[in-house]
Amino acid sequence: MLALGAASAAAAEESEVPDDVAEAFAGPVIEEIQGDELTDEDAPDFSGNLRAVAVQPIFMFDENFYEGVPDEPLTETGEWIAALVRDDTVIGTATVWKPSGVVEVAGYDNDAPLGNELRSESGKALVRDEPVGAYYWYDRPNQTFTPANDPALVQVAGPAPLKDVQAAVVERTRAAQADGRDDVVGGQSPTQVVGGRSWLPLVGGLALLAGGLALLAHFWRGRTGHTESSSPASGA
After folding, report:
1. Is residue 230 in some structural domain?
2. How buried is residue 132: exposed, middle or buried, by Cβ count under 10 Å (0-12/13-18/19+)?
3. Is residue 162 part of a domain?
4. What order do you get walking across the sheet with 125-129 strand by strand?
5. Domain that holds residue 134
6. What residues in the chain have per-residue pLDDT under 70?
7. Which of 45, 87, 175, 210 has its CA 20 to 30 A from that of 111?
8. What pLDDT is recorded for position 63?
9. Which residues of 174-194 are buried (b: 16+ CB within 10 A; e: fewer)?
């Protein structure tokens, strides 16, 4: 498993940001975000000297990963994410995709901790675990996962080897299937936590998962009709 996992991550990290995606983040994405009229009273302020930086692709677990098969762990989502920075302060993230071949804003939020992660990390693959609203970093040389946002802590509390993360995610997914729960954000609950003590700040102890998912609920532009997980619980 480990050799194949390393090969997969190597391929993932060789992916470059397409020119049209980079160009969109350099101007049109910011213009669209700042042009939106957000009526939610809790909506964050995206005005001012806003920039999108640290653009990188988003990956997800491969379908075989969810089946417990010792195969390549990652596959592309067809989405790219960037940190939103006003002046020199990270205030959130923005995501784009190309559902019709043209770059479109998929969503944006006020997840500043994840934005800071995007600015500080390099050389690792960013993996989205949609059912629990988590993002992880996958380190190819060490074949380990580490949490990249607060919701990730409910599944991966610190550096954890590939085999442990796969076992935990597979167990969680099969439990969700047995209960008939959909494979969507909030549709699954981790049955075990792997990894050592995390260096990420906790945001409420037992309320961590609820708080993390509440933040994701403030993803101001939704991906309408977009299937985000290859988990078999989603019917993939």
Report:
1. no
2. buried
3. yes
4. 104-109, 89-97, 74-86, 50-61, 125-129, 134-139, 144-147, 160-161
5. 2-221
6. 1-15, 39, 180-191, 197-236
7. 175
8. 87
9. bebbeeebebbbbbbebeeeb
22 within a domain of the structure (yes/no): yes
Task: Render 153-196 in DSSP notation, one character per residue.
Answer: GGTB-S-EEHHHHHHHHHHHHHHHHHHT--SSTTS---S--BSS
**H or E stretch covering 138:** strand 134-139
Q: Quick check: pTM over 0.85?
A: no
- Selection from 34, 11, 36, 30 nearest residue 103 by Cα: 30
Q: Is 118 helix (H, G, I), strand (E, B) or coil?
A: helix
Determine the straight-line distance between the first and last CA of the chain, rounded to whole angstroms: 22
Helix (H, G, I), strand (E, B) or coil at 33: helix
Alpha-carbon distance of 132 to 6, in angstroms, equals 24
Number of domains making up the chain: 1
Beta carbons of 60 and 229 less than 8 angstroms apart: yes
